Amino acid sequence: MNKRTRAAAFGVKAALAAGLGSLAYPLFFRHWCLTWGARPDEVSRKLPGDELLADAGIVSTRVITINAPPAAIWPWLVQMGSGRGGVYTYDWIENLFGLNMHSARRILPQYQDIKVGDELPLGPGRPAMQVAVCDPERTLTIRFADGNWVWIFALVAEDEQTRLISRNRIATPGAPPPVRLFNLLVMEPGSLIMERKMLLGIKQRAEDLTREQVIRK
């Protein structure tokens, strides 16, 4: 087999692999990707802020159990943002896009007092995130300035644990097929990687805070 034939065979195999991958994800992995850690009742649960983007094209509901009360989790949520507490995920990836994210390891008192209408910056030149619902230790809903993204954090206490629900509602109005395919095969799996890291980061911080408070007592 000459070099040209080998190259053609490789191209065919690569195209076949890409085609199979594009079919496998929506058929077998997409539901898991969009509902990582969530129970069926949590996926279907109505959350404050769902109505702000009722006809979202993409909805993800990802959940983690935290061995801490809501009071130990809430402070980490309200201080999120660029130039604030960061978002507790892979800072180096965020900062490749110039978002100036530096995930805090401690509670920052200057960012704890938030209310509806306040803005949580996403990064230089990016649309701001505005607080739409602020129910302390229960729900924090933020809406992006362009109206195409609503992000809901809900805290549900269960015995001595808390379920932290993170729901993203994203509009995809009139997106052309290549953009829809990119969102499906790249952005959705990528969002799971980043959000899973964020949820684990919040979990670790809240559980560490709870242990510190117990030791002080």
Short overview:
Strand 5 (149-158) and strand 6 form a beta hairpin.
Q: Give the beta-strand count.
A: 6
Structural class: alpha+beta
Kindly give the count of domains: 2
CATH homology superfamily name of the largest domain: START domain
CATH class term of the largest domain: Alpha Beta
- Average the pLDDT over all residues and give the rounded result: 86
Helix content: 40-55%
Distance between the termini: 75 Å
Spans of at least 5 consecutive residues whose pLDDT stays below 50 are 7-21
How much of the polypeptide forms β-strand, as a percent range? 15-25%
Number of helices: 5
Shape designation: globular
Using only CA atoms, what is the Rg? 20 Å
**Can you tell me the CATH topology of the largest domain?**
Alpha-D-Glucose-1,6-Bisphosphate, Chain A, domain 4
